[in-house]
## 1
Amino acid sequence: MAEEGKSTVRAVERALDILLAFTSGREFAMTEIADKVGLHKSTVHRMLATLEDKGFVTRDRASDRYRLGLRIWELSANMAGGDDPAVLGLPEMERLRDLLGETVSLYLRDGSERIRIQAVQSDQAVRRVAPVGVRLPLYVGASSKVLIAFEDAETRESLLADPSWPSSVDIAQYREQIDEIRTLGYATSFEEREPGAAAVSAPIFGRNGKMAAALSVSGPANRLTPETMRRHAPVIIEAAQRIGSMLK
């Protein structure tokens, strides 16, 4: 009986691993999914058949490639949308994009990473493309610094003491940046994560006073110069405050 229970749990874990493979792309061939999750093709084939039957994935018969099914969207529609910054903040993000002309993103912290949970793309020909759902390291980038700086003191210290941070990061210097960010109320990054890109970010606080997310504006470094980001910062802070006023 115990072995049967373990087998059931393993099957659930494998099915979830297959679904999580789609965080890195929209569609995959069965062999690509097998490589991603490290399972035999026959096992993945059986799992995909079950997930397809339940509506969690769908298969394009012409290309024989899989993508997420409508059941995923049905589940996401029943999330706590009434207090979801990705839902409530979208109109304000669109207004900010139209005002500043750059891509606007919303990030949450998950452990030692940040996740982009919403994005409004710039209409300009040369722009930052910000795919929703992407995970990024917490030790670099404007929104990363915001997500650390405005955490409670205990969590902040725990994050700064994380042994997984690369040795190239000067923690003492990073702490100084965090202190400055807490004073300014926003953070900037200039070609930190990728060449030619810059961003400015501000925290979103709920009405309970706790940080809910980071609002970020990003674009090419030749447009988002340090001076331009300083000029945009008050506008972004105000937008973050308006989003926060809608949260609990």
## 2
Amino acid sequence: MISNQILQSTIEGLKGITRTEFCVYDTEGIVLAGTSSGMTVYGDDVVSFVNSPAESQVVGGCQFFKIMDENQLEYILLVRGAGDDAFMIGKMVVFQIQNLLVAYKERFDKENFIKNLLLDNLLLVDIYSRAKKLHIENNVHRIVYLIETHIDKEMNVVEIVRSIFPAKTKDFVTAVDEHSIILVKELKERETADEIDRIAKTIEETLNAETNSNVYISSGTIVSDLKDVSRSYKEAKMALEVGKIFETEKFIVNYEKLGIGRLIYQLPLPLCRMFIKEVLHGLTMDDFDDETLATVNKFFENNLNVSETSRQLYIHRNTLVYRLDKLQKMTGLDLRNFDDAIIFKITLMVSKYMMYMDKMTY
């Protein structure tokens, strides 16, 4: 079904070309779109026309037309005027709206196909047969972007994303739920990783500007077969989750750049608890104050460089050494030692993962 906004913009554009007033009703005599308030009073006449066998007729100085969609009556079009010119213009507008119905139905069918493809709801043989009917190519490079928003549901974010790639009719944009949107993007054969990140950045900047709200965007890997699109979607889902846990300051995450976070995310929680108990000897991350943790994170950022870390924290070198010695007494780990630093870094990440999963269970 075409939205009322699309109908309105269509007949306004046609009015600008033909200098004729139009109004579109549904089959119950309710106005859906119009260019003149004077044409919104024909509700009863429209209902009578719906029940008549005529394809068109003149009532009260307006030409009435039936708009069909595969032999199903969809709309009633009213055109101001009763002569041959009004009839000809009306037939042209009917043709235009019927073509819109066909286009929107085809897009709806393609969106349903893509949704079922992403959710693994199709048999392998059905994927290729339905793709052929819908004129969707199989062996082309595609990637899935997952866009998560917390924007007012009245704002049509799906249409905003579609508008970013208006010439790319082979791209598919669909909503998974009220907060998640999927873009299945067709790529050129030699698309680089930088280009994939650039596309994500374009989406982020456009949505931030249009909605005045931050969005999270993740991407899977490039696939070259339709049946593998669901894999790219699952990878994008994982990337989004891993990014929320380990890359809290990033709004764009690529599955191929998750690093060690990908490994930790797939660890079973009992194994994580066993690791934390072994390393911290019964302590938890709550036993470390914010000052100590901030110092450790900055120390890691500066590749275990004591002088640079103390300079950036605006503290004396001896103060930093004191804090590191304090941590060593608590854990037995000397972060100035590379192996111990790695163990504590992984401990921090595993703790973040456990906290996130505990939060998700409540």
## 3
Amino acid sequence: MIVEADGGSRGNPGPAGYGAVVRDKLSGETLAERKGFIGVATNNVAEYQGLIAGLRAARELNAETVDVRMDSKLVVEQMSGRWKIKHPSMQPLAREAQEVAGFFRKVAYEWIPRERNKQADRLANEAMDGENAPKAAEEAEGTKQPHWSGAMGEPTRVILLRHGQTKLSVDRRYSGRGDHPLTELGLEQAEKAAARLSKVEGIAAVISSPLQRAQQTAQKLADKIGLEVVTHQGLIETDFGTWEGLTFAEASKQDPEVHRRWLGDTSVKPPNGESFDEVHARVRKARTDIIARYGGKTLVLVSHVTPIKTMLRQALDVGPQFLFRMHLDLTGVSIAEFYPDGHASVKLVNDTSHLG
């Protein structure tokens, strides 16, 4: 993949922001964008922040090799090891960038002229022009410290809600693309979850999988807070193929070798179905789309076990084994916050206190 990054400061030091783009090396397609306002800083600090955000985005996309292209001669030469890093403010940023770069098999750095870095430059300027920039600049002057993890900017708060009970969940059957409605108990669970989440202030959108069990759950909340349900295809459950509607034992008996491998390998697909790796890519794209539209706001996403686990995995930045070790209950509530600089934090996992 290709990472293009840029940063700028109006005053040097002054109000500063960064931008980063991740592209497919073959097609040139934009796979991810990052931008963020970092307060009062120098151009060089902003350039490094852009690099770090771009590398984190590429790691999230499971890149193995990365070509970094920047119009900052200083950052390119320092990260290539040809120039020493003398300034104290640069050293921790360079170490952080080197740490993230260490996750890839290979990272190459190339200087490019500014006219070839227009998309990252545009994102950096958007960050410096953002509505939060004056406030953030004031905070950077000392009125407020950044998030303890070092995250900068206003996070997008994502409240993840699993749908209520269906007939297939009663019998613990694989329930993927089959479009099953909620049971009476499922409707009651959705009503209780809606009553709880309706007390959350500032919900900007209720976004749901297209399947009716998720739509019915989402509608309960939307009706209470006066919003329309927005549907996003990327939040749909895994396609379990020929295992749809089967129990664990039935699927294991039908395809013993594939089922055994599937339980520990996220690249394995159920027959005529979808692998967890494919779900990961789909959910990542959905999250990017949603944050591009509603960035910095509080959102409720109503979905299914695998997409919710996948989004939590992405927020925690952990490996695929997380999927096999995390349990989610019907109408369980989880919360993750995604920052514009690529940081994220998980605030809550599988809370069902509203059912008590």
